[in-house]
Specification:
By secondary structure, the protein is an alpha+beta fold. It has two domains: 156 residues, FAD/NAD(P)-binding domain, CATH 3.50.50; 138 residues, Cholesterol Oxidase, domain 2. It has seven helices and 21 strands. The strands form seven sheets. Strands 8, 9, 10, 13, 18 and 19 form a six-stranded antiparallel sheet that branches. Bound molecules: flavin-adenine dinucleotide.
Amino acid sequence: MQEQPSLFTAQKFLPRTKRITYSRITHTLSILGLSATGVSYSDSKGKLHTASIHKNGEIIVSAGAIGSPQLLLLSGIGPKSHLSSLKLPVVLHQPHVGQFMTDNPRFGTTIVLPFQLLPSAGKVVGILQENIYIQSFAGPSTFLVPPAFSLLPPQSTSINPTLASFVGKFSDVNSKGWLHLNSSLDVKKSPIVRFNYYSHHDDLDRCVRGVRKVGDLLKTQTIEKIKTQDLEGEKAFMFLGLPLPENLWNDSSVKEYCKKTVTTYWHYHGGCLVGKVVDGNYKVIGIENLRVVDGSTFSVSPGTNPMATLMMLGRYVGLKVLKQRW
Ligand SMILES: Cc1cc2nc3c(=O)[nH]c(=O)nc-3n(C[C@H](O)[C@H](O)[C@H](O)COP(=O)(O)OP(=O)(O)OC[C@H]3O[C@@H](n4cnc5c(N)ncnc54)[C@H](O)[C@@H]3O)c2cc1C
């Protein structure tokens, strides 16, 4: 329960909400029968507290795509086999909690520029079919070269190359993963999460198309300027990390490139999907007085950055709750 946009939004629309900041739900939600009744949490000094809901009250969990399924599992709401394997009492067998974990793979390339540039915010440079978004970023980046690998004295081992990144994301990812608890007692022990990047061939095909488009971009006249000249006078891109495959029409080498360079866009979602774990009102199916409102309910993350959509989700549900209660 830290200060987050979703909490501010909830408080704005639910004036009788008491805000408790810098606290952590330590273990579980209290559930009597199939009704959520309270939460136990520790404050910033580690002191334990419990909060119980009033009549007609409810608990709204907004702990994110990793925290919310983790809390539900720790509270005994999840796949029976997983809970039983950790000797956790099963409150509700809910096979979909912690399932459909999804992360949009980030693909593309980063080039070291032969000149300095001021930092620029990410820009969408193109949207291809099948919701493939290509973005560009540029600006200085600081690398600290470890002294052991540097010929320069330690105080001068900081270099500031200017980098340009051409990266892409696609919104509806087919490769799905899972989240399992790593501890049945300690909420601070991060759960184990697998996103299974590119386990679905459609995702790999989309990466190939996206990487080809980045390759097309690098062939344009404007981008010629970011090539670096070597000692023989030859101009070439100075790739940071793995260079783009030379033959972008060779499917297998581009697929290999996608797999080797896969990284996150930090837009992971899933674990408590609408229609699987929560209903259309974001209420946990099968449990009274409990909602999940955050990115864990998303089956798809929007093409670019998801924060605005998430804030609007908080507002949307906040207004709904307000209408129902007052
Ligand atoms: C490095 C990074 C950069 C990003 N950049 C952007 C960007 O530029 N633009 C954009 O739109 N999106 C960006 N995102 C994505 C965006 O931040 C997330 O998609 C969004 O914050 C998810 O919102 P959420 O409400 O689902 O979860 P979160 O924002 O993660 O909120 C969940 C909160 O619950 C807290 N919590 C978890 N467990 C517990 C517990 N047991 N007890 C109490 N509190 C708990 C967490 O500490 C967290 O504060 C970025 C993400 C990352 C990681």
